[in-house]
DNA sequence: AGCGTTTTAGCAAGCGCTTTCTATATAGGG
DNA sequence: CCCTATATAGAAAGCGCTTGCTAAAACGCT
């Protein structure tokens, strides 16, 4: 029915072992032999049986990429950088890996299940992206799973995610705390003293770190935070819109709104504009991430640029063993403050 | 080292065959036996060896989803609907399928390579999303590959993609032509006679179909199209911005700009606004797709809603054999005109 | 020419599961 | 109480590949 290695071997007048070796290219085969084999492969339109190969070799060419929300460009950019680096199609020589992205939708169960599925597939590596979920039980389960994976020889790298100590995973963490602090200090430097903050969902590490940075900046400048100044929402535009309305209702004297990310910031801009407020003359707005649309916004968004594509590419290379892991298995990647039009000096009031 | 089926069998005092059967649940096993086995599985923390299983069963639980651009919400929404339906983690009983998305980046080679990789993995099904590439040679290669997949028992479904006749693939096509026509007719009904059109990349079927619809509407109303009124770009915001500037430079008397999709339309809005033109008082703008951000835009976008999530879910069910394929293996899904604020009556002039 | 090396290729033993076929209990009917 | 259905479990033969080991051929020395 389907053509197998043996068929190719017969046609090329060699043993199956030889065919396997030319296909894997990890063993010397005479040029003339190789050519004959390749010709047979081509003529028979042979496609290697992945499962059989993975079984015999005790490892597959599958690499999994876990993302929280596939429809969010934050993850899209990282995933596509990782995928490009991992090779797969269009990759470098021998790069026939299947890089696949799995969408957890931010659900703890799905996160875990995907990890199990990948483990079952004997994935060669897995990259986990984005903030983790702050739930002790879930984190323990994740860590146990990750440890099991690394022990079984699967390389696990965390990209834009906090380190998982003692699991064997390599972490490329974004310095959300530092970025958040720098951003808020910029606003304070501009003269703002009354700053609203729209945080992400409470259970995500990213949310907490960015908020901590913001508060550290306030504290460093002796600004006492009013509890009314912080609201939690989701990481999307609509949530930013609603949260901003709420914020301005609670305290109309705010002169700046710092958003958990750029989408939220855009929602904030829309809400302010709909309230008849000008940006940045009446209220300044700042975002986080510097996604591609942020510079196009009117006014363009002051934000913290996270090197998503670079970090993704690096994570991909580490996952492939093509780049050395950072010392201690942990690296913190800083964001870069992008000063643009959405934040200015506060209104006189 | 790693625990195998045999270990579980030994622990549960049954044969490996029995363990396999309780795991697959496709053969009667006494309740007491099943329980014993499940207990052993749990105690040993056993994870099935996917490749071995796939080899023996001659099929895997992998399902591939091909997308053109993972960072584009258009694909993100479809992919996430497909993935949800296919089950995988969090799916229905027995739904332990691994639904993975593969990002082709719009490249023909990668498209083909991913298909081969999926074929190699003996994927249970594959879903191809989004417009196809209009290149006879590439399409022939794709069709051949798809035929090979369906012949090997892999279900192939096309979601938002033109049918591939005689390949055994099932198509859920969006009626881009009809949607494009309806949209432009709406604008014409509003009184517009001078309409610019920002098309997508020339080589995509989606681009051609939408443009054909637009032109059909013009023709139906006896409007002769000026060659200056059409420019081609990419499917992103920046491209829309630039194209709009070009369009207005070519013919400042245009009263409406129809964009290939919503991102492009948003870019168009920004360009018009930056040119000092009001929307829709001076120039009307229309998009396509109705992505979530379109209703949030100011003014909200008049556009054609494509049922991305519904179509994705349906494609997923068909791929899983859980829903019957449409008659003839082809279904055309209509979009719905969303009349909103970005398009109004043309300015007097 | 003889011998040790180095290349190159084949043999065959699995990898860990599924599944057909067969065997053994158990139950039901006369 | 025996005989035939029926339910349940096991034996064993692969699935198609990889790879350690071995063998043969080719090469370079002395």
Automatic annotation (TrEMBL), chains A, B:
GO terms for MF: DNA binding
Domain of life, per lineage: Bacteria
Alphabetized UniProt keyword annotations: DNA-binding, Transcription, Transcription regulation
Gene3D superfamilies, per database record: 3.40.50.2300, lambda repressor-like DNA-binding domains (1.10.260.40)
InterPro entries from the UniProt entry: HTH_LacI, LacI/GalR-like_sensor, Lambda_DNA-bd_dom_sf, Peripla_BP_I
Stretches assigned to the HTH lacI-type domain: 3-57
Keyword Cell membrane annotated: no
Protein name: LacI family DNA-binding transcriptional regulator
Species annotation: Streptomyces indiaensis
